[in-house]
Amino acid sequence: MKRSIGAKTLAFPTPTWVVGTYDMNGKPNAMTVAWAGICCSAPPCISVSLRKATYSYGGIIENKAFTVSIPSEDHVKEADYFGLASGRDEDKFKTTGLTPVRSELVAAPYVGEFPFVLECKLLHSFEIGLHTMFVGEIVDIKAEESVLDENGNPDIEKIRPIIYGPGNRTYYGIGPDLGKAFSIGKER
Residues in domain Flavin reductase like (predicted)? Predict the structure, then answer.
């Protein structure tokens, strides 16, 4: 029997994405988000939700752009730090030793050491309550050669993205392949 636990921000899994922006003075900044995901196929879009109080919020509004750098498990400490510190108070790139890379397509930086990057121009913003949802059109994806498969597609097992468990506030890695989508369900 299922037990009601109330209305909470629990959905599984949630991503661990690092959103890159420039502040009003052109300083690179980044913050970790979990309230995010794919939201449209055509045009290809993602959404990220931020509180107005975050320093990155102003950067997205100012520049009408953001990036999403997807860290591998090797950078879980740095990804967590990007969510703990504020760009108002310190240079997160300098503190972590990671490299801000200027996007050639949008007015936002990405994390050079992270293997997979989405470059987005802002299409819409929606004030929902405590958070504002930013919808960004993906104008390009950059991936390290080492995380691509033989067909040039990203391989999740090579990227090794970090998953966030909002209930217990813990990071996880991905598990093993369970079967091919749009196929395994045909097996009876």
Answer: 9-164
Residues of the chain with pLDDT under 50: none
What residues have CB less than 8 Å from 49, skipping those under 6 apart? 33, 35, 36, 128, 131, 132, 133, 134
CA atoms within 13 A on the CB side of 92: 30
Query: Do residues 122 and 48 touch, judged by C-beta distance below 8 A?
Result: no
- C-alpha span between 100 and 144 (Å, rounded): 16
List domains and CATH numbers for the chain.
14-186 (2.30.110.10)
Strands (DSSP E) found in the chain? 14-15, 17-22, 28-33, 36-40, 45-51, 65-70, 100-102, 109-111, 116-127, 131-143, 163-165, 170-172
Instruction: Give the whole-number percent of the chain exceeding pLDDT 70.
Output: 100
pLDDT at 10: 86
- pLDDT for the residue numbered 150: 96
